[in-house]
Amino acid sequence: MRPLLRKKCLPAILTAAVLLLSLLAARVAASPDFHAETLASLAEKQDTVLELTAASTAASTAITLLPGDAATPIAEKLADLSGGFLLVLCAIYLEKFLLLLTGYVSFSFLIPIACLLNLCYLLKGWAGCKALARKLFLFALVLVLVIPASVKLSDWIEKTHQDSIAATIQHAKETAQEAEDAAADQTAEGGLFSKITEGITNAASAAVEKASRTVNRFLEALAVMLVTSCVIPVLVLLFFVWFVKAMFSAPLLSPPALPARKGPTATETEEAR
Q1: What is the model's pTM?
Q2: What is the model's pLDDT at position 197?
């Protein structure tokens, strides 16, 4: 009787302790101070997206000042990129929101419910409660870890492209300045009539060529931001889901029991005699 009581009491005490610690940690997990490093990384990524958006908008506006129609498709393409940057910005805000929400939900509801189900299994012997408790506990851990893990992986990828993104912003500023200078020179040479009849000057042609390279740079920067802010969080979540499924499908608890060996039958005994 005593070994059976000890076998149930110790896990029950540990489960109750985990339940209390989870309730105490709920308020801490939902605090911005607890996620200060992750939030700072997301804020830095947000500033980068805003700089790229502002630079592309300024370059598009400046390119529209160039004479002729050669620069119009480039300006329209740069303006269209703002939709992609808006998508990245929404994904960053969603990560900020989920970072605080998932910690609160996991420690306030999911882990305590898992602990209560485990207590029901220990006290009442309901096997279904044990399996559900483990699933809820692992699901809560996935919710807590998915955002920080995805942000860490995104930071590692963005560091390899940080210089390229900074060069893109600088290149866009130079393009906008050259386009404004070329437009001003063309206006000084002959006004509106000169723009129509003479076409684009050499300076304007150089500005258009540089603007086309700016579009390519912005497309590369947008691709990096989409991968790090939208694709990687989804891939990390899918990885954790696969890992949880692998944990439940693998025989981790105990090896299957071998069938008991049967004794010889009466017929086998007679034949042996």
Answers
A1: 0.76
A2: 42
